């Protein structure tokens, strides 16, 4: 949410994008969301989804943990690592998420970084690409689809209902 408010023009663009997916009523000073098409948020709001992916890339520290069932040699340049059967290994993904050859300007929040045009439909879509915020393989988070929908729902409701500014004014510090 902070990245949305801190990135010039992003809040307005996202509000326009999510508006068709929500029914909002205003009664004086009271604004209420009366309906949300949660499926449409994931399908029809690629910038919102891409901004979520970019937030994952910037702040998430996912790690995959694997059990070594049988002895294994892993090549690493001039070295080889011998992994004994029965051990556990941990693979942090954060290094890849901040690798400039994979994600140019890795320290900069770029909300449209994960947008691309789908070849078959011609529509702009958000795709994870090489980002692995939910892990990978058999250990991938089983609740990722539900969690993604919850995050999109909460973010879209928040930006629809509230304006925020930093205490004391001025730009947001992220």
Structural class: alpha+beta
Alpha-carbon distance between the two ends? 11 Å
Order of helices and strands: HHEEHHEEEEHEEH
Major β-sheet annotation: 2 strands, antiparallel
Give the radius of gyration: 20 Å
With strands numbered from the N-terminus, the spatial order across the biggest sheet is: 1-2
Spatial shape? elongated
Count of DSSP-assigned helices? 6
β-strand number: 8
Low-pLDDT segments, ≥5 res: none
Q: Provide the β-strand percentage band.
A: 15-25%
Mean pLDDT: 93
| Relative helix content | 25-40%
What is this structure, in a nutshell?
This protein is of the alpha+beta class and 174 residues long. The protein has helices at 2-6, 10-18, 38-44, 46-59, 94-97, 144-161; strands at residues 22-27, 30-36, 63-67, 72-76, 79-83, 88-92, 115-117, 124-126. The chain is elongated and about 70 Å long.
Can you describe this structure?
The protein has 174 residues and is of the alpha+beta class. Helix content is 33%, strand content 22%. It is built from 6 helices and 8 strands; from the N terminus they run H-H-E-E-H-H-E-E-E-E-H-E-E-H. It has helices at 2-6, 10-18, 38-44, 46-59, 94-97, 144-161, and strands spanning 22-27, 30-36, 63-67, 72-76, 79-83, 88-92, 115-117, 124-126. The protein has a two-stranded antiparallel ribbon. Strands 3-6 form a two-stranded antiparallel ribbon. A hairpin with a 2-residue loop joins strand 1 (22-27) and strand 2. The N and C termini lie close together (11 Å). The model has no long low-confidence stretch (mean pLDDT 93).
């Amino acid at each position: 949410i902070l990245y949305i408010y801190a990135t010039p023009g992003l809040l307005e663009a996202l509000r326009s994008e999510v508006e068709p997916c929500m029914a909002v009523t205003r009664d004086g000073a009271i604004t209420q969301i009366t309906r949300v098409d949660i499926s449409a948020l994931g399908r029809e709001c690629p910038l919102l989804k891409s901004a979520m992916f970019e937030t994952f890339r910037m702040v998430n520290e996912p790690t995959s943990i694997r059990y070594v069932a049988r002895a294994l040699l892993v090549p690493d340049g001039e070295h080889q690592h011998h992994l004994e059967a029965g051990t556990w290994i941990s693979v942090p993904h954060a290094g890849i998420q901040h690798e400039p050859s994979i994600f140019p300007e890795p320290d900069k929040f770029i909300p449209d970084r994960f947008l691309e045009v789908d070849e078959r439909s011609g529509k702009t879509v958000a795709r994870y690409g090489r980002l692995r915020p939910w892990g990978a393989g058999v250990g991938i988070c089983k609740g990722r689809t539900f969690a993604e929908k919850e995050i999109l729902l909460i973010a879209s409701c928040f930006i629809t209902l509230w304006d925020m500014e930093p205490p004391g004014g001025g730009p947001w510090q992220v």
